[in-house]
Amino acid sequence: MIDIKETKKRYGYHPDQLSKCSNKRVIYICVGCGILKDIKKLSYKGENHKCFHCSHADRSIGYEKIVIDIKRVTKLLGKQPTTTDYVNHGAYKLDTVRKHFGGIGWKEILSTLGYKRQRYITDPYDFETVCKDVERVRKQLGHIPNHSEYKKYGKITVEVIYRVAKCNSYAAFIDKVYGIKDEATWKYFLGKQTYRPTESYFNQLRELAAKLGHTPTRREAKNHCKAGEILIERLKINWSEVLKQAGLDLDKLPLKGRTRRVSDEDIFRDIRLVGKRLRKMPTIQEYKANGKYGVKAIRLRFGSWRNLLELTGVKQDKNVIIAQEIAKSKLQQEIIEDIKYVAGKISQTPSWKQYCEHGKFGFRKIASVFDGKWLEALAAAGY
Fold this sequence. Notes:
Blueprint: H1 4-11, E1 25-29, E2 36-40, H2 52-57, H3 63-77, H4 83-89, H5 94-100, H6 106-112, H7 127-141, H8 147-153, H9 158-165, H10 170-177, H11 183-194, H12 198-212, H13 218-224, H14 227-235, H15 239-245, H16 264-278, H17 284-290, H18 295-302, H19 305-312, H20 318-346, H21 352-358, H22 363-370, H23 374-380
Protein backbone atom coordinates (compact mmCIF):
# COMPACT_ATOMS: atom_id res chain seq x y z
CA MET A 1 0.00 0.00 0.00
CA ILE A 2 1.06 3.63 -0.60
CA ASP A 3 2.73 5.38 2.33
CA ILE A 4 1.14 8.86 2.21
CA LYS A 5 3.36 10.47 4.89
CA GLU A 6 6.61 9.26 3.34
CA THR A 7 5.47 10.34 -0.15
CA LYS A 8 4.61 13.84 1.06
CA LYS A 9 7.90 14.06 3.00
CA ARG A 10 10.09 12.98 0.09
CA TYR A 11 8.27 14.45 -2.94
CA GLY A 12 6.07 17.20 -1.44
CA TYR A 13 2.69 16.11 -2.85
CA HIS A 14 -0.23 13.92 -1.77
CA PRO A 15 -0.46 10.64 -3.79
CA ASP A 16 -4.28 10.90 -4.07
CA GLN A 17 -3.83 14.12 -6.06
CA LEU A 18 -2.14 12.14 -8.86
CA SER A 19 -4.05 10.35 -11.60
CA LYS A 20 -3.59 6.60 -12.14
CA CYS A 21 -1.57 7.33 -15.31
CA SER A 22 0.77 9.85 -13.67
CA ASN A 23 4.54 9.52 -14.20
CA LYS A 24 5.26 11.03 -10.77
CA ARG A 25 6.70 8.68 -8.14
CA VAL A 26 5.10 7.49 -4.89
CA ILE A 27 6.39 5.55 -1.87
CA TYR A 28 4.73 2.20 -1.13
CA ILE A 29 5.23 -0.75 1.22
CA CYS A 30 6.08 -3.99 -0.64
CA VAL A 31 3.73 -6.86 0.29
CA GLY A 32 6.55 -9.39 -0.11
CA CYS A 33 9.41 -7.92 1.94
CA GLY A 34 7.65 -5.10 3.84
CA ILE A 35 10.30 -2.54 2.82
CA LEU A 36 9.53 1.00 1.61
CA LYS A 37 10.03 1.30 -2.17
CA ASP A 38 9.40 4.02 -4.73
CA ILE A 39 7.61 3.57 -8.06
CA LYS A 40 5.81 5.57 -10.76
CA LYS A 41 2.08 5.93 -9.98
CA LEU A 42 1.10 4.44 -13.37
CA SER A 43 3.10 1.25 -12.58
CA TYR A 44 1.54 0.79 -9.12
CA LYS A 45 -0.89 -2.17 -9.18
CA GLY A 46 -2.71 -1.76 -5.88
CA GLU A 47 -2.38 -2.92 -2.28
CA ASN A 48 -0.90 -6.33 -3.26
CA HIS A 49 1.94 -4.76 -5.31
CA LYS A 50 5.34 -6.43 -4.94
CA CYS A 51 8.74 -4.99 -5.74
CA PHE A 52 10.92 -6.32 -8.57
CA HIS A 53 12.91 -8.72 -6.36
CA CYS A 54 9.84 -10.21 -4.67
CA SER A 55 8.08 -10.63 -8.03
CA HIS A 56 11.07 -12.54 -9.41
CA ALA A 57 11.23 -14.62 -6.25
CA ASP A 58 7.73 -15.89 -7.18
CA ARG A 59 9.30 -17.90 -10.01
CA SER A 60 10.95 -20.25 -7.51
CA ILE A 61 7.62 -20.97 -5.76
CA GLY A 62 6.70 -24.62 -5.81
CA TYR A 63 3.51 -26.09 -7.25
CA GLU A 64 2.44 -27.40 -3.82
CA LYS A 65 2.62 -23.93 -2.20
CA ILE A 66 0.30 -22.50 -4.88
CA VAL A 67 -2.22 -25.34 -4.39
CA ILE A 68 -2.19 -24.73 -0.61
CA ASP A 69 -2.73 -21.00 -1.17
CA ILE A 70 -5.72 -21.53 -3.52
CA LYS A 71 -7.31 -23.84 -0.92
CA ARG A 72 -6.64 -21.22 1.78
CA VAL A 73 -8.45 -18.54 -0.25
CA THR A 74 -11.36 -20.94 -0.88
CA LYS A 75 -11.68 -21.62 2.85
CA LEU A 76 -11.39 -17.90 3.67
CA LEU A 77 -14.19 -16.87 1.29
CA GLY A 78 -16.36 -19.94 1.81
CA LYS A 79 -16.83 -20.36 -1.94
CA GLN A 80 -14.96 -21.24 -5.12
CA PRO A 81 -12.75 -18.17 -5.84
CA THR A 82 -12.90 -16.22 -9.09
CA THR A 83 -9.79 -14.60 -10.60
CA THR A 84 -10.75 -11.29 -8.92
CA ASP A 85 -11.11 -13.07 -5.56
CA TYR A 86 -7.65 -14.62 -5.88
CA VAL A 87 -6.02 -11.34 -6.96
CA ASN A 88 -7.50 -9.64 -3.87
CA HIS A 89 -6.79 -12.42 -1.32
CA GLY A 90 -4.10 -14.69 -2.82
CA ALA A 91 -0.41 -14.59 -1.90
CA TYR A 92 0.93 -14.96 -5.46
CA LYS A 93 0.47 -13.22 -8.78
CA LEU A 94 -2.10 -14.73 -11.16
CA ASP A 95 0.52 -14.96 -13.95
CA THR A 96 2.81 -16.94 -11.63
CA VAL A 97 -0.01 -19.38 -10.81
CA ARG A 98 -0.81 -19.88 -14.51
CA LYS A 99 2.83 -20.51 -15.40
CA HIS A 100 3.05 -23.28 -12.79
CA PHE A 101 -0.03 -24.88 -14.37
CA GLY A 102 1.31 -24.67 -17.93
CA GLY A 103 -0.44 -21.46 -18.99
CA ILE A 104 -4.02 -22.82 -18.76
CA GLY A 105 -7.02 -20.68 -17.75
CA TRP A 106 -8.36 -20.16 -14.22
CA LYS A 107 -11.37 -22.49 -14.69
CA GLU A 108 -9.06 -25.27 -15.93
CA ILE A 109 -6.76 -24.72 -12.92
CA LEU A 110 -9.71 -25.17 -10.53
CA SER A 111 -10.87 -28.28 -12.45
CA THR A 112 -7.35 -29.74 -12.13
CA LEU A 113 -7.55 -29.26 -8.34
CA GLY A 114 -10.90 -31.11 -8.20
CA TYR A 115 -13.32 -28.19 -8.02
CA LYS A 116 -16.59 -28.52 -9.93
CA ARG A 117 -17.23 -25.94 -12.62
CA GLN A 118 -19.83 -23.40 -11.57
CA ARG A 119 -22.34 -21.97 -13.99
CA TYR A 120 -22.42 -18.19 -13.98
CA ILE A 121 -25.53 -16.32 -15.08
CA THR A 122 -24.74 -14.47 -18.29
CA ASP A 123 -25.79 -10.86 -18.88
CA PRO A 124 -29.40 -11.00 -20.23
CA TYR A 125 -28.90 -7.77 -22.20
CA ASP A 126 -26.79 -7.04 -25.25
CA PHE A 127 -26.20 -3.84 -27.25
CA GLU A 128 -28.93 -4.64 -29.78
CA THR A 129 -31.55 -5.15 -27.02
CA VAL A 130 -30.64 -1.82 -25.41
CA CYS A 131 -30.85 0.01 -28.76
CA LYS A 132 -34.29 -1.48 -29.45
CA ASP A 133 -35.60 -0.25 -26.09
CA VAL A 134 -34.26 3.30 -26.69
CA GLU A 135 -35.84 3.24 -30.16
CA ARG A 136 -39.17 2.17 -28.63
CA VAL A 137 -39.08 5.16 -26.25
CA ARG A 138 -38.09 7.47 -29.14
CA LYS A 139 -41.15 6.41 -31.15
CA GLN A 140 -43.37 6.79 -28.07
CA LEU A 141 -42.19 10.37 -27.38
CA GLY A 142 -41.61 11.46 -30.98
CA HIS A 143 -37.97 12.45 -30.28
CA ILE A 144 -34.75 10.95 -28.86
CA PRO A 145 -35.23 10.71 -25.07
CA ASN A 146 -32.87 12.53 -22.74
CA HIS A 147 -31.54 10.99 -19.52
CA SER A 148 -34.57 11.73 -17.31
CA GLU A 149 -37.10 10.76 -20.02
CA TYR A 150 -35.49 7.40 -20.62
CA LYS A 151 -35.34 6.77 -16.86
CA LYS A 152 -39.11 7.34 -16.74
CA TYR A 153 -40.21 5.34 -19.83
CA GLY A 154 -37.36 2.87 -20.45
CA LYS A 155 -37.41 -0.77 -19.33
CA ILE A 156 -33.64 -1.08 -18.80
CA THR A 157 -31.69 0.82 -16.15
CA VAL A 158 -29.16 3.44 -17.24
CA GLU A 159 -26.41 1.56 -15.33
CA VAL A 160 -27.01 -1.52 -17.53
CA ILE A 161 -26.79 0.68 -20.65
CA TYR A 162 -23.40 2.03 -19.51
CA ARG A 163 -22.11 -1.51 -18.91
CA VAL A 164 -23.42 -3.04 -22.16
CA ALA A 165 -22.55 -0.08 -24.43
CA LYS A 166 -19.22 0.53 -22.63
CA CYS A 167 -19.92 4.27 -22.26
CA ASN A 168 -19.25 6.68 -19.39
CA SER A 169 -22.33 8.86 -19.93
CA TYR A 170 -25.83 8.75 -21.43
CA ALA A 171 -24.80 11.40 -23.98
CA ALA A 172 -21.90 9.19 -25.16
CA PHE A 173 -24.36 6.29 -25.60
CA ILE A 174 -26.77 8.43 -27.67
CA ASP A 175 -23.81 9.65 -29.73
CA LYS A 176 -22.83 6.02 -30.35
CA VAL A 177 -26.35 5.07 -31.52
CA TYR A 178 -27.66 8.18 -33.31
CA GLY A 179 -24.62 10.46 -33.64
CA ILE A 180 -24.53 13.94 -32.03
CA LYS A 181 -23.48 16.60 -34.53
CA ASP A 182 -23.93 19.98 -32.86
CA GLU A 183 -23.24 21.77 -29.58
CA ALA A 184 -26.91 22.27 -28.70
CA THR A 185 -27.61 18.52 -28.86
CA TRP A 186 -24.68 17.77 -26.52
CA LYS A 187 -26.08 20.36 -24.13
CA TYR A 188 -29.53 18.76 -24.28
CA PHE A 189 -28.35 15.22 -23.54
CA LEU A 190 -25.70 16.06 -20.95
CA GLY A 191 -28.02 18.38 -19.03
CA LYS A 192 -27.35 21.85 -17.58
CA GLN A 193 -25.39 20.56 -14.58
CA THR A 194 -22.78 18.44 -16.42
CA TYR A 195 -22.59 20.29 -19.76
CA ARG A 196 -19.60 22.52 -20.51
CA PRO A 197 -19.05 24.39 -23.82
CA THR A 198 -16.41 23.03 -26.19
CA GLU A 199 -14.52 26.33 -26.02
CA SER A 200 -13.96 25.88 -22.26
CA TYR A 201 -12.13 22.60 -22.95
CA PHE A 202 -9.99 24.33 -25.58
CA ASN A 203 -9.14 26.96 -22.95
CA GLN A 204 -8.03 24.18 -20.57
CA LEU A 205 -5.61 22.88 -23.22
CA ARG A 206 -4.23 26.39 -23.84
CA GLU A 207 -3.70 26.89 -20.10
CA LEU A 208 -1.93 23.52 -19.88
CA ALA A 209 0.33 24.46 -22.83
CA ALA A 210 1.25 27.73 -21.07
CA LYS A 211 1.98 25.85 -17.84
CA LEU A 212 4.18 23.21 -19.53
CA GLY A 213 5.92 25.65 -21.85
CA HIS A 214 5.14 23.54 -24.93
CA THR A 215 2.20 22.01 -26.80
CA PRO A 216 1.02 19.01 -24.71
CA THR A 217 1.05 15.45 -26.02
CA ARG A 218 -2.13 13.40 -25.62
CA ARG A 219 -0.63 11.54 -22.63
CA GLU A 220 0.36 14.78 -20.91
CA ALA A 221 -3.14 16.17 -21.40
CA LYS A 222 -4.66 12.94 -20.07
CA ASN A 223 -2.48 13.13 -16.93
CA HIS A 224 -3.49 16.73 -16.15
CA CYS A 225 -7.14 17.04 -17.28
CA LYS A 226 -9.98 15.31 -19.14
CA ALA A 227 -10.37 18.04 -21.78
CA GLY A 228 -8.41 16.23 -24.52
CA GLU A 229 -10.38 12.96 -24.34
CA ILE A 230 -13.72 14.81 -24.17
CA LEU A 231 -12.85 16.87 -27.27
CA ILE A 232 -11.80 13.75 -29.21
CA GLU A 233 -15.10 12.05 -28.29
CA ARG A 234 -17.25 15.13 -28.96
CA LEU A 235 -15.65 16.36 -32.20
CA LYS A 236 -14.67 12.88 -33.53
CA ILE A 237 -11.21 14.02 -34.63
CA ASN A 238 -7.65 12.90 -33.84
CA TRP A 239 -5.26 14.62 -31.42
CA SER A 240 -3.48 16.67 -34.09
CA GLU A 241 -6.79 18.18 -35.24
CA VAL A 242 -7.74 18.97 -31.62
CA LEU A 243 -4.48 20.90 -31.18
CA LYS A 244 -5.01 22.78 -34.47
CA GLN A 245 -8.55 23.81 -33.48
CA ALA A 246 -7.21 24.93 -30.08
CA GLY A 247 -4.73 27.17 -31.94
CA LEU A 248 -1.66 25.31 -30.62
CA ASP A 249 1.50 24.87 -32.73
CA LEU A 250 2.25 21.23 -33.60
CA ASP A 251 5.93 22.07 -34.06
CA LYS A 252 6.12 22.92 -30.34
CA LEU A 253 5.25 19.35 -29.37
CA PRO A 254 8.09 17.49 -27.57
CA LEU A 255 10.18 15.40 -29.98
CA LYS A 256 8.81 12.16 -28.52
CA GLY A 257 5.27 13.46 -29.08
CA ARG A 258 5.76 14.11 -32.80
CA THR A 259 7.75 11.02 -33.79
CA ARG A 260 5.06 10.02 -36.29
CA ARG A 261 5.74 13.16 -38.34
CA VAL A 262 9.53 12.64 -38.34
CA SER A 263 11.15 11.15 -41.46
CA ASP A 264 12.65 7.63 -41.46
CA GLU A 265 16.13 9.01 -42.14
CA ASP A 266 16.02 11.23 -39.01
CA ILE A 267 15.12 8.20 -36.88
CA PHE A 268 17.91 6.11 -38.47
CA ARG A 269 20.42 8.92 -37.85
CA ASP A 270 19.48 9.19 -34.18
CA ILE A 271 19.75 5.41 -33.63
CA ARG A 272 23.21 5.42 -35.24
CA LEU A 273 24.28 8.25 -32.90
CA VAL A 274 23.07 6.28 -29.85
CA GLY A 275 24.91 3.19 -31.17
CA LYS A 276 28.16 5.14 -31.54
CA ARG A 277 27.79 6.62 -28.07
CA LEU A 278 27.22 3.19 -26.48
CA ARG A 279 29.71 1.45 -28.83
CA LYS A 280 27.23 -1.36 -29.46
CA MET A 281 23.84 -2.10 -30.97
CA PRO A 282 21.35 -0.41 -28.57
CA THR A 283 18.49 -2.38 -27.07
CA ILE A 284 15.03 -0.82 -27.09
CA GLN A 285 15.38 0.15 -23.40
CA GLU A 286 18.80 1.73 -24.03
CA TYR A 287 17.39 3.78 -26.91
CA LYS A 288 14.41 4.82 -24.78
CA ALA A 289 16.84 6.21 -22.18
CA ASN A 290 19.28 7.85 -24.64
CA GLY A 291 17.32 8.55 -27.86
CA LYS A 292 15.30 11.59 -28.92
CA TYR A 293 12.20 9.91 -30.37
CA GLY A 294 9.31 7.88 -28.96
CA VAL A 295 9.83 4.10 -28.99
CA LYS A 296 6.12 3.24 -29.30
CA ALA A 297 5.63 5.24 -32.52
CA ILE A 298 8.87 3.80 -33.96
CA ARG A 299 7.73 0.21 -33.34
CA LEU A 300 4.33 0.91 -34.90
CA ARG A 301 6.09 2.18 -38.03
CA PHE A 302 8.82 -0.45 -38.44
CA GLY A 303 7.52 -3.51 -36.59
CA SER A 304 10.14 -5.27 -34.45
CA TRP A 305 13.19 -3.50 -33.02
CA ARG A 306 15.55 -5.98 -34.71
CA ASN A 307 14.13 -5.13 -38.18
CA LEU A 308 14.68 -1.45 -37.50
CA LEU A 309 18.31 -1.99 -36.47
CA GLU A 310 18.95 -3.93 -39.69
CA LEU A 311 17.52 -1.02 -41.71
CA THR A 312 19.69 1.51 -39.88
CA GLY A 313 22.86 -0.52 -40.51
CA VAL A 314 23.97 -0.43 -36.86
CA LYS A 315 26.24 -3.41 -36.25
CA GLN A 316 26.73 -5.21 -32.99
CA ASP A 317 30.20 -5.75 -31.54
CA LYS A 318 31.55 -9.21 -32.55
CA ASN A 319 32.69 -9.94 -28.99
CA VAL A 320 29.17 -9.28 -27.71
CA ILE A 321 27.66 -11.60 -30.36
CA ILE A 322 30.10 -14.41 -29.48
CA ALA A 323 29.41 -14.00 -25.74
CA GLN A 324 25.64 -14.15 -26.37
CA GLU A 325 25.95 -17.29 -28.50
CA ILE A 326 28.09 -19.05 -25.84
CA ALA A 327 25.61 -18.15 -23.09
CA LYS A 328 22.67 -19.35 -25.20
CA SER A 329 24.41 -22.64 -26.02
CA LYS A 330 25.25 -23.24 -22.35
CA LEU A 331 21.65 -22.50 -21.28
CA GLN A 332 20.30 -24.82 -23.99
CA GLN A 333 22.45 -27.69 -22.70
CA GLU A 334 21.33 -27.08 -19.10
CA ILE A 335 17.65 -27.10 -20.13
CA ILE A 336 18.08 -30.36 -22.10
CA GLU A 337 19.75 -32.02 -19.08
CA ASP A 338 16.94 -30.80 -16.80
CA ILE A 339 14.26 -32.17 -19.18
CA LYS A 340 16.03 -35.57 -19.16
CA TYR A 341 16.18 -35.45 -15.35
CA VAL A 342 12.42 -34.77 -15.10
CA ALA A 343 11.67 -37.51 -17.66
CA GLY A 344 13.70 -40.02 -15.57
CA LYS A 345 11.98 -38.90 -12.38
CA ILE A 346 8.42 -39.44 -13.69
CA SER A 347 9.38 -42.36 -16.03
CA GLN A 348 7.79 -40.80 -19.13
CA THR A 349 8.14 -37.92 -21.59
CA PRO A 350 7.11 -34.86 -19.55
CA SER A 351 4.27 -32.59 -20.62
CA TRP A 352 4.69 -28.85 -20.05
CA LYS A 353 2.53 -29.06 -16.93
CA GLN A 354 4.65 -31.90 -15.51
CA TYR A 355 7.87 -30.03 -16.29
CA CYS A 356 6.54 -26.91 -14.50
CA GLU A 357 5.93 -29.09 -11.45
CA HIS A 358 9.36 -30.79 -11.35
CA GLY A 359 11.73 -28.69 -13.54
CA LYS A 360 13.87 -25.77 -12.45
CA PHE A 361 13.63 -23.45 -15.52
CA GLY A 362 10.79 -20.99 -16.14
CA PHE A 363 8.89 -20.26 -19.33
CA ARG A 364 10.93 -17.18 -20.32
CA LYS A 365 14.29 -18.96 -20.35
CA ILE A 366 12.95 -21.92 -22.33
CA ALA A 367 11.16 -19.58 -24.75
CA SER A 368 14.36 -17.57 -25.35
CA VAL A 369 16.22 -20.70 -26.47
CA PHE A 370 13.49 -22.69 -28.26
CA ASP A 371 11.29 -19.85 -29.65
CA GLY A 372 8.55 -20.53 -27.11
CA LYS A 373 7.84 -24.07 -28.39
CA TRP A 374 7.86 -26.94 -25.87
CA LEU A 375 7.88 -29.60 -28.63
CA GLU A 376 11.17 -28.18 -29.96
CA ALA A 377 12.69 -28.43 -26.49
CA LEU A 378 11.56 -32.07 -26.23
CA ALA A 379 12.97 -32.83 -29.70
CA ALA A 380 16.34 -31.32 -28.72
CA ALA A 381 16.35 -33.58 -25.65
CA GLY A 382 15.69 -36.62 -27.88
CA TYR A 383 11.95 -37.21 -27.16
